[in-house]
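Exercise 3.2. Students should predict the tertiary structure of the chain below and write it as structure tokens, then compare their answer with the key that follows.

Predict this chain's 3D structure.
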Amino acid sequence: MNKELLQRGVSTALRWWKSMYASASELKKEGIQAAPTAWKAELKRAESIDAVLLSQGFRALWLSLSSDITEGSDKQVSENMLCWAAVAGALVSVSDNHTESFAKLAGRKGDGDKPVVSELRFAQLQQAQAPEEFLRRIRRILKQLKGKASVTQLAKDTCCWYQELTSNYPREADKRIAVRWAMDYYQAN
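Answer key:
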């Protein structure tokens, strides 16, 4: 997925997220229709990518994405669908659209001199090798962050993570999402 297509998808995901979390006045101002509360509840209960794929909330996101994402070869559509299901599954755990990435917020010092999210838990997310594992670990971290994260950055990061997971191409170390997360995490203070 190229950068322009990713940006359009992320913008759509932000509107979708706002439909579940933004106040009625903000929704009215932006011309967004409020989502049924069942979408959020169903997505929060989804414990696997398959469960996310079968939810009405994901269906609404998928149908609102650009046809450049939702159409193409069967393999590409399948890959894109799994990627955006991971995005939906992660974003439903964000209740406060913050300006900073979850990695920076996770690395911030909490009580005392320890980061809010332990290095071990953060490393486990970086090493996730399957969508279900990623979903479980990112949700745990977002819970520790009390639902605070940048919605757009999390959507981009999730897409990057998924593309790296499914790509056969070697990556430059400084471009890998795990490295970028680590830099944000350790430079948080």
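Discussion points: The chain has twelve helices and two strands. The mean pLDDT is 94.
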